[in-house]
Design goal:
Elements: H1 3-12, E1 17-19, H2 28-35, E2 41-43, E3 52-55, H3 61-68, H4 75-84, E4 91-92, E5 100-102, E6 123-124, E7 128-133, E8 137-142, E9 145-147, E10 152-155, H5 162-169, E11 174-180, H6 184-190, H7 200-207, E12 212-214, E13 221-223, E14 228-241, E15 255-267, E16 272-275, H8 281-288, H9 292-300, E17 304-310, E18 319-325, H10 331-342, E19 348-352, H11 361-371, H12 374-377, E20 378-385, E21 402-409
Parallel strand pairs: 1-2, 3-16, 4-12, 18-19, 19-21
Antiparallel strand pairs: 2-3, 5-15, 6-9, 7-8, 7-11, 9-10, 10-15, 11-14, 12-13, 14-15, 17-18, 20-21
Helix pairs in contact: 4-7, 4-9, 6-7, 9-10
Length: 425
């Protein structure tokens, strides 16, 4: 369902806060969302005429499932199926996201929040960037944008990924369009990492029909039903980006990053600006949960995988719990090795049997306590490539961060009578 349809459904179910009192975009919005545990909220009085402001829309798996009109326990299979079976999007001529078109750009008129006092500036945190690689075509991915002035942002581009490759391929002048206020299908698909040449919007289209429309000033296609589109160029001009609170709830490094110059804004009438609270549930789920289908697919190549979760305590990024149907003595170790191969930022992983609920940390800990032996069931991988988000990793400027990784095989060992290890209650 579309972004506004989900807001209506959340309201009808009593899960949406409608806030009419004045809320400042300078720190107060972040404080409000934190105190209300990121409950979905729609703000109508934010000091920016003509805009409403929404946040918390993806802060629970329940809301994501609601947006796809499925049950929570169907999410992994639905996402995995869409990832494996992208479909062709319809392209329309008239779109809600282009009800208003303006080339008289003033980014200072947008309701862009500043979350925390040490932030480098106001930030767009829920934007999906559409770019085109000359060889591989269109791509959609999340990028944070720090406001510089009335026409410019700087945006974080991770080296080696699709946007960076397209930026370099076009001699560091890349057309781009940033989309805000998207459906759950678009937001979930944009977090995935399909192979080059597969446009994430085709995955979104399998999750839920997602028509596209051509940008007004760029050779790009954007979701027709989103709220706001910022069209422009990523330039060969670098400025400091950050500080910004990232996935771990700690500040990321300040880096020299490209300027994104905006020359056209399109949006719906009475548009809703969407944001997410950095370092909290919504950020973690949107970044990490969509790695679960990739992990699931990778592990299933070597063993029978039943379920995978990137756990909240591991920032939905560094820690995985994996449930398998164990058939061979080395299935646990095979699953661990496949998991580390499938998600390069993974730091710690545990594999359990089918009788363990991987959404229950107490059951996982019980499996480790009763089924794991360190001298037999521990996989240790020293000096492995790591994520720059891990404060404890070894960071060298200009090089990939490094860390040690461990995997725990907490499945029932085949040399022992299985009935001895089965839970009674």
């Amino acid at each position: 369902m579309k972004f506004r349809e989900l807001l209506q459904k959340l309201e009808e179910s009593g899960k949406l806060v409608q806030e009419n009192k004045t809320i400042s975009l300078q720190y107060e919005m972040a404080d409000y969302m934190t105190k209300n545990k990121e409950r979905p909220a729609l703000f109508s009085n934010i000091g920016k005429p003509g805009f409403r402001f929404a946040s918390g829309i993806c802060s629970q798996r329940e809301y994501m499932a609601m947006g796809l009109e499925i049950e929570q326990n169907e999410m992994l299979q639905r996402l995995s199926s869409a990832f494996e079976n992208p479909s062709v999007n319809a392209v329309v001529e008239d779109a809600p996201c282009q009800e208003i078109v303006s080339t008289d750009v003033d980014l200072l008129s947008l309701p862009i929040p500043r979350f925390f006092p040490k932030d480098g500036g106001p930030y767009i945190s829920a934007g999906i960037l559409i770019t085109r690689h000359p060889d591989y075509g269109l791509n959609a991915s999340y990028h944070r944008l720090m406001l510089l002035d009335k026409n410019n942002f700087t945006l974080r581009i991770v080296e080696g990924r699709h946007t960076h490759a397209a930026y370099c391929k076009t001699n560091r002048r890349l057309q781009a369009a940033l989309c805000l206020g998207n459906s759950q299908a678009v937001m979930l698909a944009s977090s995935m990492s399909p192979e080059a040449g597969i446009f994430e919007m085709s995955i979104a289209n399998t999750l839920d029909p997602t028509p596209l429309v051509s940008c007004k000033t760029k050779d790009l296609l954007v979701p027709a039903d989103c709220e706001i589109v910022l069209e422009g160029w990523i330039l060969d001009k670098m400025v400091a980006e950050g500080p910004f609170v990232d996935l771990t709830g700690t500040y990321d490094f300040v880096r020299q990053q490209p300027v994104f110059q905006i020359d056209c804004i399109t949006h719906r009438k009475n548009p809703i600006f969407q944001s997410l609270l950095p370092g909290q549930n919504e950020h973690k789920l949107l970044m990490g949960m969509l790695k679960e289908p990739t992990l699931y697919s990778q592990i299933n190549k070597v063993v029978s995988c039943k379920n995978v979760v990137l756990t909240p305590g591991g920032c939905c990024w560094f820690h995985a719990a994996i449930q398998i149907c164990k058939k061979n003595p080395d299935d646990g170790m095979k699953a661990l090795k496949a998991a580390f191969e499938g998600h390069k930022s993974l730091k710690h992983a545990v594999v359990v049997d089918e009788d363990i609920d991987i959404y229950n940390s107490q059951e996982i800990e019980w499996a480790i306590a009763t089924r794991f032996q360190a001298d037999r069931d521990l996989l240790l991988l020293p000096d492995e490539p790591s994520s720059s988000l891990d404060p404890s990793a070894r960071h060298t400027l200009g090089q990939k961060s490094k860390t040690a990784k461990i995997g725990l095989d907490a499945t029932i060992h085949n040399t022992q009578p299985r009935e001895k290890f089965i839970k009674v209650f």
